[in-house]
């Protein structure tokens, strides 16, 4: 079964988000953004570590003809975890109540939906990844507020 253009685009979300993040960081040269990207990188490594511990296989069926067999485990979904981290953290920091927040949550939802639709993950794997990513973003944001933000006037921009 062939995937439509939307699913093919969403399957490339990770390099798109990484590229845009680097461009935004270079353009704004902000310690706030650097802290966000460090947190999202940690979140991705936590997802990879959890996959090795939990060792739950991916679904047997996939709708993506370009994928013959995934050699990695599926629980939790790394894409879901990092996308929910990024969306939650970004919403909490600067983009509350704006069109950007709506776009960010819609894009995140579409990526999460695509992971199940394309057969890369089960719904449970996506939901667990989403939950862990949001919890990590909440903790990371509170760390920023309590420990790091007060140092910002003393730190030079990148």
TrEMBL record:
Annotated TM spans: 20-47, 98-116, 122-141
Superkingdom classification of source: Eukaryota
Signal sequence, renumbered to the chain: none
Pfam families recorded: PAP2
Claim: Membrane is one of the keywords in the record: yes
Keyword Hydrolase on entry: no
Domain Phosphatidic acid phosphatase type 2/haloperoxidase: 33-141
Keywords, alphabetical: Membrane, Transmembrane, Transmembrane helix
Gene Ontology molecular function terms on file: sphingosine-1-phosphate phosphatase activity
InterPro entries documented for this protein: PAP2/HPO, PAP2/HPO_sf
UniProt protein name: Phosphatidic acid phosphatase type 2/haloperoxidase domain-containing protein
Organism the protein comes from: Circinella minor
